[in-house]
Amino acid sequence: MPYNVRPLGGIGPLPRVWEAQMAESAAGDALFERTGKVSFVQVLPHALQHVLAAFAGIVTPAIIIASVCGLTPQEEAAVIQASLVLSALDIFLQQFPIKGIVGSGLPIVMGASFTFVPALKAVGLELGFEAVLGAQVIGGALVVLFGLLFKRVSFLFPAPVLGTVIFVIGLSLCPVDVASMAGGEGAAEFGSVTNMDRRARDVCRHLYGR
Predict the structure, then answer these.
(1) Which of 9, 56, 61, 95 has its CA 20 to 30 A from that of 205?
(2) In which element (H, E) is residue 116 found?
(3) Residue 105 to residue 96: CA distance in whole angstroms
């Protein structure tokens, strides 16, 4: 095996194979560093993966609320676009923060939250989409205030409490999932065998198609 005559850290020459492995490991670690220099070939697939993974989570709450409020297809498209644009602005603020004001300086993907979907559904069914927008303004202000005070009250939210809240949110969204599997609320063929078969095949592809 050929050796490189250049010493490293006073421990003598290392095999070129080892040096190549160390260089490859350093290149892989750069993906997880804030200032890591990564090639475009490495960045592109990871960026596309993040976009595709985030897209469904960003647009789904908007679709749910729009369908509950009975919006037209044009209005629903506008709500979805607004969700995407605001999520993009959130991501930019996290990546390029206004120091001392907002942003973490980390490559964090931000998107719409499912936390408020059950409450917004109730508001939308009772008072309409205008009330949903007003509730979001009030809820957003409360979330910002809570975020500023979270360090002082974090002891009130241990892991069992947070886990229970997330579990309850998931349970409250189950009817939405089942309705979507059946074709969507208000669909002419709601609950048809064709719709259920299509969703069953989608689930199988998701679980076993890797």
Answers:
(1) 61
(2) none
(3) 6
